[in-house]
Amino acid sequence: MSVSAYYCFHNMSTFKRSSSHTRCHQFGVLSALVAASLAAACRATPGPATPPATASDNAWAVVDGRQITRDDVEKAYRRMGDAAQPVSDEESLTAKLSVLNDLILEDILIAKAREAKVEVADKELDNAYAEARKNITDEAYQQELTTRGATAADMRDALRRQLLTQKFVEQQVGAKIAVTAQEVSDFFLANRSQFNLAEEAYHIAQIAVTPAREAQLANRTGDDAATPQAAATKVAMLMERLKAGANFAELARDYSEDPESAPRGGDLGLIPMSRLKQAPQQLRDVVLKKAPGTVSVASAGGAHTLVLVVAHEPAGQRDLSTPGVNDRITEALKSRKEQLLRAAYLTAVREDAHVVNYLARRLVEAQGKLPGAPAPAPGPAPAQKAK
User: Fold this and answer.
1) Whether 66 and 161 share a structural domain
2) 33 and 160 co-located in one domain
């Protein structure tokens, strides 16, 4: 089975809830935001809202007086890109626009976190750094640092910035979300039929890992394995963390590459037996006859799915007193609220900031060409069609 065919599993309607709402290299947590963090860490000190004319060519954005330079974006792009995968000029510039937008939002959140006096303690950073490095040999670690043109100090700073933004957003969004007993009851009454199983079913959750860049990501770290080796290393890291007691749903939110289920903690809901029987053999084998709480890995074509069997449910009607029903509804409602409030909060802080995106302006003015960029090397002459 090809990678693309296997990945279809992650988007099969049979593995989605009817009410559904819509990247790990060898460094685990560290690599996810290293590009953005390294770039941001070496930015210029705050200056005027509009950079002086002599600096404007190098300033690709200005955020509340803080410059994000072309060098910042180029460094981030090189660290995030896959050198083995050639891309067109248009694809490269599109990716750099995306990187710049990420840097802009990170800059805003870091500034707000500092204003709110949110801090990451050294012990917290040490623990997270040790956790991220524990499955990496010193040789592999140094090799990756060299490849990325980074130092261990750079990595620690990147991780600190990631932890800082996560902690701040959690304070502003996550900590303020509450689900009442009345909301749970109302949801159950409005969706009672969903809790009446016509046939035996399995409640499952997943963490998807693929060996290629994803067009869309919705995990909290932005982590995306880009090669078969990176995907395999990521899966090994995730399984080690699960064995150490990590929460499956939190890992799915941080690392799963399936944009639909990642925000829900990988939850795919109840899958009827008839639907499971239609799934590929590899997937059936990691679900059927597995005890609740079991996590198994299905792999094909370099892609991997970590599957958690949450529960095995017989046919019949459930109510709020049925074990697990109240918790599942509460988690689903909380996830919905968190997705909405997180999106609204990030949109609001982005809109409230004074941002000038010079890269976007120049691309529009130059009709998609970056002024001052070197001309692309000529490619091979097109093959002549046989007559």
Assistant:
1) yes
2) yes
Q: What is the pLDDT of residues 183-195, one digit of tens each?
A: 999 999 999 988 8
Does residue 352 lie in a domain region? no
- Residue range 80-98: average pLDDT? 75
The verdict on 151 and 254 lying in the same domain is: no
User: End-to-end CA distance of the chain, in Å?
Assistant: 37
Do residue 109 and residue 229 come from a single domain?
Answer: no
Sign of CA dihedral 46, 48, 53, 59: positive
Tell whether 68 and 166 lie within a shared domain: yes
Q: What is the DSSP letter of 323?
A: T
Instruction: Tell me which residue range forms the domain holding 52.
Output: 29-176
Name the domain count of the chain.
Answer: 2
pTM, full prediction: 0.62
Single-letter amino acid, residue 27: F
With tokens 């800082």, the residue in question is: 164
Nearest Cα neighbor of 66 from 38, 43, 96, 100 is 43
In a domain, 184, yes or no: no
- 224 and 258 fall within a common domain: yes
Output the six-digit token pair for 115.
């204003």
How many C-beta atoms surround the C-beta of residue 373 within 10 A? 11
Give the angle 82-205-282 at the CA atoms, nearest 5°: 75
Percent of the chain with pLDDT over 90: 40
CATH at residue 240: 3.10.50.40
Distances in Å between the Cα of 242 and the Cα atoms of 33, 210, 235, 285, 306 are 22, 19, 11, 20, 11
Q: DSSP states of 251-319 as a string?
A: HHHHH---TTTGGGTTEEEEEEHHHHTTS-HHHHHTTTTPPTT-EEEEEETTEEEEEEEEEEE-SEE--
**Strand partners for 203:** 270, 311
Per the listing, tokens 């001309």 go with: 375
List all residues 6 or more positions away from 54 whose beta carbon is below 8 Å from its beta carbon. Answer: none
- Summarised one tens digit per residue, pLDDT across range 17-57 is 333 333 333 233 323 333 333 333 333 333 344 444 334 56
